[in-house]
Amino acid sequence: MAPRKKPPTPPLSFEKPIFELEARLGELEAQPDPTPATRDAIRNIRVEITRMRREIFMGLDAAETVLVARHPDRPQVLDYIELIFDEFVELHGDRAYRDDRSIKTGFAKLGEEKILFVGQHKGRNLDERTEYNYGMAHPEGYRKALGKMEIAARYGLPIVCFIDTPGAFPGIGAEERGQAYQIALNLREMARLNTPIVVVVIGEGGSGGALGIGIGDHIAVMQFAYYSVISPEGCAGILWKHARHKDKAARALRFTSKDLLEFGVIDEVIPEPLGGAHRDHRAAATVLKGSLVAAIRELKLIPRDQLVDRRYDKFRRMGVFEKTIKEGETV
Amino acid sequence: MATAKPDLESWQESTGKAKRGVPEGLWIRCQGCRSTVYRRSVEENLFICPECDHHFIVPGQIRIQQLLDPDSFEEWFADLRPADPLGFVDKMPYAERLKAEAKRTGMSEACVAGRGYMRGRPLVFALTDSNFIMGSMGSVVGEKLTRAVEAATEKKLPLVILSGSGGGARMHEGIYSLMQMAKVSAALGRFHDAGGLYISVLTHPTMGGVAASFASLGDLTLAEPKALIGFAGPRVVQATVNEKLPPGFQTSEFLLKHGFVDRIVHRHDLRSEIARIIDYCGR
Ligand SMILES: [Zn+2]
User: Fold this and answer.
1) Between β-strands A103-110 and A159-165, what pairing exists: parallel, antiparallel or unpaired?
2) B233 alpha carbon – ligand 1 mean position (Å)
3) Residue A20: is its pLDDT beyond 90?
4) Which residue range forms the structural domain that includes residue B185?
5) Residue whose C-alpha is closest to residue A129's, from A83, A89, A98, A169
6) Which end of chain B is more exposed for a tag (fewer CB within 10 A), N or C?
7) Which CATH number fits domain A65-316: 3.40.50.720, 3.30.70.940, 3.90.226.10, 3.30.1180.10?
8) Does B28 fall in a domain?
């Protein structure tokens, strides 16, 4: 269904100076017969807006990044399907319980490439959020995703997974139907699907609920997305005993794309348009598409009998620990 | 990762508190029947309340003595020590927390792994101990478990992992902890492909990222009675659904009823039950 017309989203606190300049620019541009001085002013403001966007968005801390990652206007899976793929053939159902809407699966054409797409959609308005359960899947969603991915592996289609979820749904039915079991199974099985898998965190990468469709050969995170073991609110609630410390928790968890790349846990940070993906869906989609095409092209060069071992080694290396030195051992 | 704070009556905590003039440590209060019981009688009963059958949390080292043949356990990878890759600080720096936990528990991490014998049957055995930072999984826990799985694959031995992890994936190591879930699960996939037998034993509590990775991937899954087992902590679920949780929600019995556990096994029978399964499935 088409998203309803809604009032413009108010700026995030750190976006305010940009919005003010843009309003000023709008006024000047609306003048019917601009003087040379006005034209100069317009040019200067444009330059200043670009400079300011760059400066502000380069300097976002982890807590501010979370606000961008969760921005209500941020492009989501349904936007990207529209903007990136030439065709999308949705496939429904987990063959056991129901069709979990939170995770969308289907065949898609990415340029010349036929792929299987798996993506979490949070919803862009209240109706969608209800339908898609805010992107929080139940076990049947993870089961559906795995089932379709197994089909893709059987027929040699590369898989593209888009992650955008606060987490797997913490509800009674989810527990009754084995949320923990199904996520665990996805981790084990995705690790050995013999087809290239590209994973992109496009917004929120919320812990096990993200990882449940997150095992792959190329892991990318959008510039202002985040990927974390726990939400900042959850972490604050446990370690600081109150969710109001969420900003402190966000900074402590080191989950921004820059940190993750530095840790070597991800392969790529996909740059976003100046001022964040929510300011220009089309530009965000273009860069993302380019990155997908390139990643798949590279992965297809890897001999198929090496792909799964390579993926194993990739995750096998993750972790940081020390070793005590035994007697007689040298460093 | 969602962390459960069940009434986690860690042995140290429950024994540490003196009660109404009773000498400290001699008597303990049972969470099951709320009565005060003689500590020795609980310890001699495999840490089970003689009054109500409540299964107390067992410290890892004692668990090994309970389950494996005397002196048969050879610990592996004991030289691995946690690092602090994030420089994480909450109410105290993670590095200090690690030291404090090590001092309090006498353990260097929440996982012990190695080789042992159970009624004469050789196996690779590992456990997570909820006394150490809620038994949560950071890089060392993930690495020890992965190595244990790889060793079981190589040596063609049955694998038994007993989990006791209220903390799931350890927040203090951030994304590295989340990735341990992937790492161990991938290793279990290879073990599975190689035809290995993996028996997962779930004890109180097994939650979050531990439940959502190796603990759920057993060929056979056993659970001690009335253990709390689940993905999201009960408080998180409560806050999300805003309705009363059904009685017995997320207990071993709940999981059995819904099809996620093969057998609930009383601690007295755990050794013999595991040995029997190995006789059916081991090669
Ligand atoms: Zn009792």
Assistant:
1) unpaired
2) 24
3) yes
4) 58-281
5) A169
6) C
7) 3.90.226.10
8) no
Partner residue opposite A208 with nearest CB, options B186, B209, B236: B209
Query: Residue B178: which CATH number?
Result: 3.90.226.10
Å from CA of B54 to ligand 1 middle: 5
Helix, strand, or coil (residue B42): helix
Q: Which of A224, A290, A174 is nearest to B250 (CA)?
A: A174
> What is the distance between the alpha carbons of residues B41 and B69, in angstroms, rounded to a whole number?
22
By Cβ distance, the residue of B2, B90, B142 closest to A239 is B90
Confidence at residue A327, expressed as pLDDT on a 0 to 100 scale: 59
pLDDT in tens, A219-269: 999 999 999 999 999 999 999 999 999 999 999 999 999 999 999 999 999
ipTM of the complex: 0.95
Nearest to A254 by CA among A216, A227, A281, A273: A227
Mean pLDDT of A39-66: 96
Nearest of B220, B196, B70, B202 to residue B124 by alpha carbon: B196
In this prediction the pTM is 0.94
Beta-carbon contacts of A249 under 8 Å, excluding residues fewer than 6 positions away, are A232, A233, A235, A236, A239, A240, B90
Q: Does residue B49 sit within a domain?
A: no
CA–CA separation, A199 vs A265, rounded Å?
A: 12
Residues 64-93 on B with a CB inside 8 Å of A are 79-83, 85-86, 88-91
Task: Check whether A211 has a pLDDT greater than 50.
Answer: yes
Contacts (Cβ under 8 Å, ≥6 apart) of A209: A136, A137, A165, A166, A167, A168, A169, A183
Structural domains in chain B (count): 1
The answer to whether the CB of B277 falls within 8 A of the CB of B220 is yes
Question: Whose CA is closest to B4, among B149, B210, B268?
Answer: B210
A192 vs B contacts (CB less than 8 Å): 186, 189-190, 193
Please indicate, yes or no, if residue B39 is contained in any of the structural domains: no
The per-residue pLDDT for range A85-144, each reduced to its tens digit, is 999 999 999 999 999 999 999 999 999 999 999 999 999 999 999 999 999 999 999 999
Residue B82 has pLDDT above 90, yes or no: yes
pLDDT over threshold 70, residue B7: no
Q: Provide the pLDDT for residue B5.
A: 40
